[in-house]
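step=encode ok
step=design start
structure_in=
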């Protein structure tokens, strides 16, 4: 019971501490909004599913009306009386990735998406904007939320799931709250999950700049129980009953492990103070996935568990792009080479000045040949974002490129540090 009493104490402190930025327009609760995103390669639409009130706000309390990274989509709240933007956040979705696949050329599909925003004091307009292939953000959904609406359901007030604190930052109200969930762990495997969650937390903090910013994070482990051990692998005709129905072979890419059951994911942790999600899959099959401001999902039984968890957290938390590439892959059409990616660590050179140009040594060739990497350790090296040509990365190697690299490259490190400070200072 000792750990539970400590949690209750922390939650009480969290609930009582409010930042002035938040107080201007919000109360210390969360508005959870569930949407359905649907469409095909050339169209996209958003439908409102359900509104919930959660018992505390665990997201950022500063810079509420600003963005650091643009994301593949944005959710914005404006004051209905004066049109002032009072909150905005960026995100990516599995839906937007699917739109770049061959399947999207022939059928329409729908995907669940859930967003957490601070609970407004007064009526607001909520707007969803999605990025198209040209790089433009187009409003796809706009609706009014009245905080006094009796149809806003309350969640997380009772039967809060068991969880433990893996790491506690210095001050609760200025920390980034990360929850780690179990996937494919049966009730008899929770000792293993707790050990795996500890390893995940430790591995993230072994990398720069997370190791220097430990006091700005809280990590929690939640024992979400699955009926079956391991997770689903469609290519092996293996379908397991797990907490979040995750599976490999996403978009027919063997190692891409994801879940589309987003509402189940958030239902399982209602009442817990969280803003970012890591899901640990109890399998020895290699793979994972990370979606910006959605979740990290990675496997714990494979020998590369440690580097992969850090890589995927680089996606889901920091919005970093993949720096590896293929000659041909199902995802090699993800980026339009005529548009600058929003991710801070890859570029098509369309607007390189907005990226790491100010980190280059004088006379660094753009692009930079790999033979010059020792002379110019930060350069503009071709091959990134799943494409061998037309997209460029900052370094020969990085945690966002290979599992063997020991750390993030300097550009990724700067991006992570900027984001942590944006959230907490």
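sequence_out=
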């Amino acid at each position: 019971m000792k750990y539970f009493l400590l949690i209750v104490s922390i939650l009480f402190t969290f609930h009582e501490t409010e930042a002035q930025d938040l107080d201007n327009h919000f109360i210390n609760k969360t508005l959870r909004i569930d949407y359905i995103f649907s469409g095909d390669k050339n169209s996209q639409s958003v439908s409102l599913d359900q509104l919930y009130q959660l018992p505390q706000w665990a997201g950022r309390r500063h810079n509420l009306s600003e963005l650091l990274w643009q994301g593949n989509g944005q959710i914005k709240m404006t004051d209905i009386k004066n049109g002032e933007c009072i909150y905005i956040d960026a995100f990516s979705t599995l839906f937007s990735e699917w739109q770049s696949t061959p399947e999207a050329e022939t059928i329409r599909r729908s995907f669940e998406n859930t967003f957490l925003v601070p609970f407004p004091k007064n009526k607001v307009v909520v707007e969803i904007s999605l990025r198209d292939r040209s790089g433009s953000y187009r409003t796809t959904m706009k609706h009014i939320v009245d905080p006094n609406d009796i149809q806003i359901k309350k969640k997380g007030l009772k039967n809060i799931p068991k969880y433990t604190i893996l790491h506690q930052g210095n001050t609760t109200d200025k920390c980034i709250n990360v929850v780690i969930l179990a996937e494919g762990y049966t009730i008899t495997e929770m000792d293993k999950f707790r050990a795996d969650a500890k390893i995940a937390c430790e591995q993230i903090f072994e990398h720069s700049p997370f190791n220097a910013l430990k006091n700005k994070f809280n990590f929690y482990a939640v024992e979400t129980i699955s009926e079956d051990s391991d997770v689903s692998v469609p290519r092996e005709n293996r379908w397991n009953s797990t907490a979040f129905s995750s599976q490999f072979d996403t978009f027919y890419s063997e190692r891409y492990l994801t879940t589309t059951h987003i509402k189940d994911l958030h239902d399982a942790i209602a009442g817990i103070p969280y803003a970012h999600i890591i899901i640990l899959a109890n399998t020895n099959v290699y793979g994972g996935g990370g979606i910006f401001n959605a979740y990290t999902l990675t496997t714990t039984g494979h020998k590369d568990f440690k580097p992969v968890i850090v890589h995927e957290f680089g996606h889901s938390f920091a919005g970093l792009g993949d720096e590896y590439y293929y000659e041909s892959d199902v995802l090699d059409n993800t980026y339009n080479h005529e548009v600058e990616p929003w991710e801070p660590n890859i570029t098509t050179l369309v607007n390189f000045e907005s990226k790491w140009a100010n980190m280059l040594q004088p006379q660094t060739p753009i692009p930079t040949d790999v033979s010059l990497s020792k002379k110019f350790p930060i350069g503009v090296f071709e091959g990134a974002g799943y494409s061998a040509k037309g997209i460029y990365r900052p370094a020969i190697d990085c945690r966002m490129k290979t599992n063997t690299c020991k750390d993030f490259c300097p550009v990724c490190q700067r991006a992570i540090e900027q984001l942590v400070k944006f959230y907490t200072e």
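step=design ok
step=annotate ok -> The chain has seven helices and 17 strands.
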